[in-house]
Amino acid sequence: MTLMFLVYVALGLFAIGALTVLLHRSAVIALMGVEIMLNSCNLALVVLSQINHNLDGQVMAFFVMVVAAAEVVVGLALIVSLFRSRRTTSVDDFKLLNG
């Protein structure tokens, strides 16, 4: 398995995540699509740092994982708040959370 194959896998995963975010109305599934996109970026960073023989991409991937964890916490808190108030997790109902 070559490293360029893994770059193409990362591109494919990013496309799958983007389509998931764009096509599904459920907030939980959209959040999962965003996580797929972030993990594909991590894969690309690690592979490209391996190609360039340095650790910068791996360090950056670690920080992206930290940001992704914080994003999941905030996203799930918003989804739980929406579900408690409206009994739905539809993305269309997020406009109700404006000020």
TrEMBL record:
It catalyses: a quinone + NADH + 5 H(+)(in) = a quinol + NAD(+) + 4 H(+)(out). The chain crosses the membrane at residues 6-23, 28-48, 60-83. Its EC number is 7.1.1.-. Gene3D superfamilies: 1.10.287.3510. The keyword Transmembrane helix applies. It is a multi-pass membrane protein. GO terms for cellular component: NADH dehydrogenase complex; plasma membrane. Keywords: Cell membrane, Membrane, NAD, Oxidoreductase, Quinone, Translocase, Transmembrane, Transmembrane helix, Transport. GO terms for biological process: ATP synthesis coupled electron transport. It is found in: Cell membrane; Membrane. It is an enzyme of class 7 (translocase). GO terms for molecular function: NADH dehydrogenase (quinone) (non-electrogenic) activity; quinone binding. PANTHER family: NADH DEHYDROGENASE SUBUNIT 4L-RELATED (PTHR11434:SF21), NADH-UBIQUINONE OXIDOREDUCTASE SUBUNIT ND4L (PTHR11434). NDH-1 shuttles electrons from NADH, via FMN and iron-sulfur (Fe-S) centers, to quinones in the respiratory chain. The immediate electron acceptor for the enzyme in this species is believed to be a menaquinone. Couples the redox reaction to proton translocation (for every two electrons transferred, four hydrogen ions are translocated across the cytoplasmic membrane), and thus conserves the redox energy in a proton gradient. NDH-1 is composed of 14 different subunits. Subunits NuoA, H, J, K, L, M, N constitute the membrane sector of the complex. Belongs to the complex I subunit 4L family. HAMAP family: NDH1_NuoK (MF_01456). This is NADH-quinone oxidoreductase subunit K.
